[in-house]
Amino acid sequence: MEAENGLKRDRELSPPAEEPAAKKMRIESDPHSTVSQPGQGEGTSGSSAEANGSSTVSSPPQGRSHKAEAPKPDFKSKNKGERIKAQKLAYSEKRKREKWGPRENVPRAKAEGEEGEGKTRLPKKKVALLVGFCGTGSHGMQYNPPARTIEGILFEALIKAGCVSADNSDDPNKVGLTRAARTDAGVHAAGNIVSMKIIREPEGVEDLVATVNTHLPPEVRLWGTVRTANNFNARMSCDSRVYEYLFPSYILIPPKPGSKMAAQMASDKPVSDEALAALAGATKTGYMHPFWAVEDLGEPDLERKRRWRVGEESIKRLRELVKAFEGTHNFYNYTVGKDFKDKAVKRYMMSIEVRDPQVVGDMEWISVKFHGQSFMLHQIRKMISMAILACRAACPPSLILESYGPTRIRIPKAPALGLLLEEPQFGAYNAQMVVGNRKLDDLRAKGRAVPEGDYREPIDFEPYREEIARFKLEMIYEKLRQREKETGTFDLWMRGVDDYVEYDFAFLNSKGIIPPEAVAKLGNALNRRKYDVERRLRQEDVGPEGAEESDEDLEAPVGNPEELEG
Question: Are 450 and 443 within 8 A, CB to CB?
Fold first, then answer.
């Protein structure tokens, strides 16, 4: 009796056996199922339980699976890990892949209706493409289908060469395309940088640069490629840009006697149409520039201008004027759509150089190099215009310093024909790559295995100087001079300036001040139409299909920190 009581007490004190997972699952899925508890229904048979309308838990029938489905991750879960799992799962389902991982060297699935075997995905690398082009006939640099642009031409050539896969061929943004400097219609570039991820070793291609150039027109060239850091951005990594403006020296000749500009310069104050006749006569009897002092023999002025050679005094004055542009200044008068207080109008000009004149054929040309961190819309064309106008009017450099103040004046744009992007520069980026390469050298010295592909070359146009020089001579300078010879672009522009004075150009005086008469009137639509010089000047600033030609980029200003703060 005591033994039976002991066994019964042991059974009551011992913990109940753990229920199998399958049994738990059946209980949760079947609300009518019952589970016997200790001390309840121990003697009830299976048949009696069925008679009472409930079922007891039993082993599942053979061949039937009761595996529970795991809940899908929730995008809106408060758990960050669950959200990441949900994103990966959705991406995997979209790509029809069973696991998360890199897609390189994975055979591409055939699209519906596509013939042939799936192609192997080749690795893509971020590179800098060193390019040059003649902008005549194009709608600018930036990709903008269906317009004919430089990036569109280059991207199509890369597709044909196998550098861009078919999956990415419909949109350059898929390969992360950026450019160091954006040029608009009619502007040329001896060197520019376009960066993107490309296939560097397409199947069957031995010389990548030569292959791409076979698919490019003669006016667009690929100089070379440089493997860059994965986070490289051509615009953001660019320190500065170098531009060249080329113009015939004859536009430095002072205004023709009898023109409105000549009359204003003679009186050193704005003149009206009524006073023009009297002043014109006085101008003819007073001092006259040697070019205009020659007796008119019936020869067109333009032919005589092209044979004229600039004097040393004019070149010296021009150099003094452009030096006033160097440094950090408020260039809001040298762009459009900006106010004096706009932070973006402060730009840093590193250096501006006027080269010695060169005679090509029967015409003399002057080259001016602009080296600045960044430039606004039309800035270079307005800067060179101001320098030329001030030089031929014998204005002091203080006029340019006055133009940085809050007084708004109207400065016409010089023709886009003479503008050329020489090259963008990447000094800070190249210095970072040198430091990185030294660290890799140190690792190798310690016996570490460092692949050659981890080293990065500097972005530099120096290895291609000879090719670029030939291209500039044949495809840019020659076409530029030929167009000037056929159309007289610069002469048309200058005669338009001389024939339109009103009060806008009253700042072109020997005192270097901006009189009240020269202040741009922005009060009403009538004044805007009356004093809008650029709309009334006869110039060739309309490109293909009416696209306005302009100079370079709209990049954010990157000023000299010391000068900007001071």
Answer: yes
CATH classification (class only), 245-425+455-565: alpha beta
Which residue numbers are catalytic?
A: 184
The mean pLDDT of the chain is 78
Higher-pLDDT residue of 518, 458: 458
Q: Which of 229, 299, 306, 232 is nearest to 486 (CA)?
A: 306
Domains of the chain by residue range: 125-239, 245-425+455-565
Tokens describing residue 485? 């010879």
Question: 3.30.360.10, 3.40.50.280, 3.40.1280.10, 3.30.70.580: which CATH number matches 125-239?
Answer: 3.30.70.580
Distance, in Å, from the CA atom of 184 to the CA atom of 544, rounded to the nearest integer, reads 11
Instruction: Say how far apart CA 30 and CA 132 lie, in whole Å.
Output: 75
pLDDT for the residue 25: 46
Q: What is the DSSP letter of 372?
A: E
Asked whether the predicted pLDDT for residue 560 surpasses 50, the reply is no
Establish whether domains 125-239 and 245-425+455-565 are of one fold: yes
pLDDT band at 304 (very low <50, low <70, confident <90, very high): confident
Tell me the C-alpha to C-alpha distance, in Å, between residue 412 and each of 329, 335, 389, 415, 476: 19, 10, 10, 9, 24
Cβ-contact 332, 339 below 8 angstroms: yes
Determine contact, residues 457/224, Cβ cutoff 8 Å.
no
Q: Which residues of 398-413 are buried (b: 16+ CB within 10 A; e: fewer)?
A: ebbebbbeebbbbbbb
Asked whether 51 and 44 are in contact (CB, 8 A), the reply is no
pLDDT in tens, 245-256: 999 999 999 888
Cβ-proximal residues to 73 (8 Å cutoff; 6+ apart), any chain: 82, 83, 85, 86, 89
Q: Comparing 59-63, 147-151, 371-375, which segment has the lowest mean pLDDT?
A: 59-63
Which residues are CB-contacts of 386 (< 8 A; sequence separation ≥ 6)? 321, 334, 399, 400, 403, 411
pTM: 0.71
- Token pair 């004075």 is found at 501
Measured between alpha carbons, how far is 156 from 153 in angstroms, rounded to an integer? 5
Tell me how crowded residue 41 is: count the other CB atoms within 10 A of its CB.
Answer: 14
What's the pLDDT band for 72 if we cut at 50, 70, 90? confident
Q: Is the pLDDT of residue 543 over 60?
A: no
Q: Is 404 annotated as a binding residue?
A: no
Question: Which residues is 111 bridged to in the sheet?
Answer: none
Short-list 496, 501, 510, CA closest to 262: 501
